Amino acid sequence: MKYDRRKFLQLGGYLAAGLAVAPIACKLINKKDDPVNNDTVAVEETKTLEAFGLQLYTLRQDFPKDPKGVLKQVADMGYKQVESFEGPKGMFWGMTNTEFKSYLDGLGMTIVASHCNLSQNAEKKIEEAAAIGMKYLISPWVGPQKTLDDFKKIADTFNKYGELCKKGGLRFAYHNHDYSFKMLEGQLPQDVMMQNTDAALVDYEMDIYWVVTGGQDPVEWIKKYPNRFTLCHIKDRSKNPVTDNGKNSCDLGTGSIDFSKVLKVAMDNGMKYFIVEQEFYPNGTPLEAAKTDADYMKKLKI
Prior knowledge:
Layout: H1 5-11, E1 25-30, E2 40-45, E3 53-55, H2 67-77, E4 81-85, H3 97-107, E5 110-115, H4 122-131, E6 136-139, H5 148-168, E7 171-175, H6 189-195, E8 202-207, H7 208-213, H8 218-224, E9 229-234, E10 236-237, E11 249-250, H9 259-268, E12 273-276, H10 286-299
Helix pairs in contact: 4-5, 5-6, 8-9
């Protein structure tokens, strides 16, 4: 079964009414053998990510047909974490929350978050997520709005979701698209949402691709709002973009985004979870793309 993301999210009624990371280290090098300089200096040593995740929407064509089989393949690719999304059979795809966790445990993976619709059955979803150690429930879409007041109302709703999640033992976050980075009444809606949500209750998942697509610099946004962007979607953008942004997602490392630069700043400003996502596959199947992306992430120097 093939899902159309925008229709899926809209039909879901969204707002209708751990990473283990090797830290950046400074290595002290003694220059006593240097004929010019005998000083000791600090030299930055790059590291790779010890763990990274996959947003299962990347495999939306294959995953609903055989969740367990696809998860096994994802684990074999080297992913240690998954971020789910809410489909016709829920966040756990026909399994109970504990069955889903147990199966992932056996594969050496964890589920850190899921995109879902908290306007329906929020308490149950929060309880099930917290029971298996998930860290986040995430709103993936609110859509373009007509006024800034509409975005302020959305921020109020986010605060309510954040309060519910906090009481339940996990966090709430919002995942951006490009529409929140387009001017509306002289302001950027992303600013309005971030400034009208309580940092103690609401985090943000930066989709780096959509920030760039919106004409903005992800590094500047991370610096502007330190410790607010605690998760991200690592999704590359074609060097030769076409008008249809649905076709500009590409294999990691083949596009225009400097992830080494972005993720270094992100880790210095509170980013905890790094989730790969790809929505268009110019060089093969979704599973082949996920494997290519995993290989890229293993080698990425930060």
